[in-house]
Amino acid sequence: MAQPASKKQRTHPTYELLYHPGIPGRGEHVRLLLEGAGVPYVDTARDQKDGYSTVQQICMNGAAESTDGNPPTFAPPGLRVSGAGKDGKSLVISQTPNILAYLGEKTGMDGEGEQEKYWVAQVAQTALDLNNEVHDTHHPVAVMKYYEEQKEESLKKAADVRENRLPKFFGFFTRMLEWNEGNGGKGKYLIGSKLTYADTTVWQVLDGLYFAFPKEMEVRKKEFSALLDDFYNSVKSEKGIKEYLASDKRFEYSMGIFRNYPELDRQ
Amino acid sequence: MAQPASKKQRTHPTYELLYHPGIPGRGEHVRLLLEGAGVPYVDTARDQKDGYSTVQQICMNGAAESTDGNPPTFAPPGLRVSGAGKDGKSLVISQTPNILAYLGEKTGMDGEGEQEKYWVAQVAQTALDLNNEVHDTHHPVAVMKYYEEQKEESLKKAADVRENRLPKFFGFFTRMLEWNEGNGGKGKYLIGSKLTYADTTVWQVLDGLYFAFPKEMEVRKKEFSALLDDFYNSVKSEKGIKEYLASDKRFEYSMGIFRNYPELDRQ
């Protein structure tokens, strides 16, 4: 494994990401944590023949059990961990913040000590809130309908997110970088002196925003350069992340959370 | 303390909820966890003279530090814990799912064992997702504008949430109750055989929905009676919860997340 020696380094069970195939989506936050940690995993729908059937059977089955005695999953992503469930069976957990907390603890991607663990979680959860708001720019009034059926509302929602919400979130993440300057973060990390899943989760949302709103981001980059230029590029070049982004394991954005509708971008 | 003896029972530091005054809001999930655990806490804006100034100074200050060396807070709720920070100072954490995870672990409200801890978190996080979707029924396109300025869009969003999202979420929580029948849950608990913060968090969202959409809920109650009748009333009568709900510490719904606009309800 590529990660530096740590008290949390250990032999890992098989971590299996259960997610939709072909899109980064919310699964990407899980992938980036594991890639940044240098811990191997199986991305079932990507790596296994008929893998998406397995994802559907476990995470989208409509029954009162997912599998192996685990409770049902509301929606992907799910995480299956061999041998970690009751009676030595597999454990299945869901909800992105929850999977990140679990894997953060197992891989050391949640910082050092109890305080950092909760600070990492809160910053990642804030990035996931932004992730949801960006999703709503193309689905503001009806989750299951097409964008084209809610385009008028999308124009309003996207303008609000670009004009009011992005600067609020970018301002917060910038303040995190300032706060962490004194802790050895050097503008590279949001919490502490090494990569955590707060960094990878914030990074993924920024990267998606660069795809969805390129014109808006070009302007914001001047205003929030420490975040959108220095931090963004620093995470991109982290060991594990760099190799992953250059590989064919990384999915391209398309019709998932981050979509490039030019009419929703800054005009 | 009123809670049953548990290996997690201990002397607690001072837990201080930092939240807006006068509304249940997201702070209510924190209050219900602590009331259900029988653990004392300070609700700063409610209990202290000029308490809201303290909340604003710590959680809404726009600086690169909240207080005592802790990182900034994106928005309330925050939790301050005496003596739990670095160098014996106070710890400040934020984000509702994160505060619930922290207090769940400290009070035993996160179930028994590692598996239950993550299952409790994922169910609570699913309820908080629903909480956000309900908020968006009156603020679908512009977070900072008035409802009256986005009423047309609200009518569409509320219809979508009532018709498509509520049955999906209620179906999931019902499947949790079915799954947990065999684990000693008896229809009273979502995970395991005692009250957890999954129960209190789901309950609070259901209770808010009864206020916001009384007509819709009256119909849904027949369809999802195990959840909306049996489970809902059972949590309401839990030790700690019952006394709290009858007290003047419980805020009434008004203009927060849950609002009663009759035009958004089932017609």
UniProtKB/TrEMBL annotation, chains A, B:
One GO biological process term: glutathione metabolic process
Pfam families in the record: GST_C_3
Gene3D superfamilies in the record: 1.20.1050.10, Glutaredoxin
PROSITE patterns: GST_CTER, GST_NTER
GST N-terminal domain sequence ranges: 14-111
Domain GST C-terminal: 113-264
Molecular functions per Gene Ontology: glutathione transferase activity
UniProt cross-references to PANTHER family, sorted A to Z: GLUTATHIONE S-TRANSFERASE (PTHR11571)
Protein name per the record: Glutathione S-transferase
